[in-house]
Amino acid sequence: MINNNGKNPEGEGRYIYCVVETDRKKIFKNFGVDGEDVYTIRYRDISAVVSRCLAKPYQSNDSELVKKWLIQHAQVVDYFFERYDATLPSAFDTVIKGGDQEAKSWLKGEYSALKGKMEKVRGKQEFGAQIFCDSKSLVDAVRKGSVEIHKMLNEIESKPRGLAYMYEQKLKEVMKKELENKMEKYARDFYEAIRSHVDDLKAEKIKKGEGDQQMLMNLSCLTPKDRVPELAGELDRINGLRNFSVKFTGPWPAYSFMA
Amino acid sequence: MVLDIDEKNLKDGVLGLVLALVEIIRDALRIQAVKRMDSGSLTEEETERLGEAFMDMDKAIEEIKKEQGISRSVQAIRDGLDDLVNDMLTDIADSPGNDSTPIPSIMEKKRPQQRLAA
To answer: Does the structure show a pLDDT above 80 at A187?
Structure first.
């Protein structure tokens, strides 16, 4: 619990969960990160959803504690996301130095930027779409489909050990290149296909997969609520393709589209 | 810490690192050898000998990894290095160019759920 008797305002901060479009004061006791009270600070027709904290991010080596904080953060943001259609979520551990006045000044200074962002996300939801491909099947397809590779395979059969090894290395390089080209084409096609069903699309970092399932793309999609079935339909289509599968998560508040 | 060195035994950890580096150097040498083979600057006999030398090297590396039980940690180290390089390349690609003072954005992009999953 933050114990601040008001004598040291420089040491305190306001932890920001999100900014929403309301002029109504809200207070939720013990609802926030580390059990802090959550409340709103208003400027004109928008409010920052905050809790009191020290003027520094929450940090700990205890991963269970950090997990608890992350969940508390998400719960507060989700509460507002479900009730306000232009919610601007903050990432975990976003802290403004100072007290309520400083938070209000920040709202005032960023007012038009924040209103602009609200228009961008109003009535929309963020979804995560990860597309995986079965690299083993694709490799097989590449091997069977290429005349050059067939030729090389036949040549290798007739060579002595050392030469066969070197030609095999060459073959591996050729296959790798062809596989990369194929995957790049798929990625570009999928990107274009998905793009036509969303308002905004971001390519995120790809995580290396275990085994045959390789992550081809990691996308964040921003789409209006009424177009979600359309997006889901397209991802379903891709999921149905041989050698590909889709992991679809959401809806989230537009965390990835706040910049 | 990105690199997941096998900590149960420091000797294994160091050995794992050494083997990972040996493999990386071998890979680089092999790429060069294939290039020279392609360019026609090697005779068939030279290529044959190179191939056999690489086969011997591969065999020795696999034997050491098996005997020392470090195959998995060597793979983990190589994967960790791959991730490091990928991150570096992504950061370079994403950097905003020649802006001297990047404007700190209070609203960042990562969902808390992504951090929970990590």
So the answer is: yes
